[in-house]
Amino acid sequence: MFWTQIEERILGDVVVLDLRGWMTVSEESKALADTVRRLVLDGRTRVLLNLAHVPSVDSLGIGDIVRAFTIAQRAGGMLKLCGVNARIRAVLVETRLIDVVDSFESEQSGLDSFRASDH
Predict the structure, then answer these.
(1) What is the pLDDT of residues 23-65, one digit of tens each?
(2) What is the pTM of this model?
């Protein structure tokens, strides 16, 4: 239950995690929850998951997103999704995760939502 690749970018006080590819069980791949746990321990509690390069998400991917969301929330932080395509949105609706985790079509609207929550 791992992503092919996770790249980190820091934009202000938000860490954008670019997820790529499909879930895989490769030794070289990383669990999203482990990455978010490390970020939270480093004091980075605002995380935006960019799913623009993920064609679809299955139950394993949803589980990893939920674990990452829970880790951020327990640390007093926020985890949001961006780059959500129609297939991923359908899974989020079906699992009712759409009502729990904020999701946005574009990275910019996701970043703007963190700024809006400061007011």
Answers:
(1) 544 444 457 888 999 999 999 999 999 999 988 888 778 888 9
(2) 0.89
Cite the DSSP H helix spans in 55-106: 59-74, 86-94
Question: Can you tell me the distance from the alpha carbon of 72 to that of 33, in angstroms, rounded to the nearest whole number?
Answer: 9
Amino acid at 66: V
Rounded-to-integer distance, Cα 15 and Cα 4, Å: 19
Long-range contacts of 66-72 (CB under 8 A, 24+ apart): 66/97, 67/32, 67/33, 68/32, 68/33, 68/35, 68/36, 69/100, 69/101, 71/33, 71/36, 71/37, 71/40, 72/36, 72/40, 72/45, 72/47
Structure tokens at 16: 């954008």
3-state class of 105 per DSSP?
coil
Question: Token pair 């079509």 is at which residue?
Answer: 105
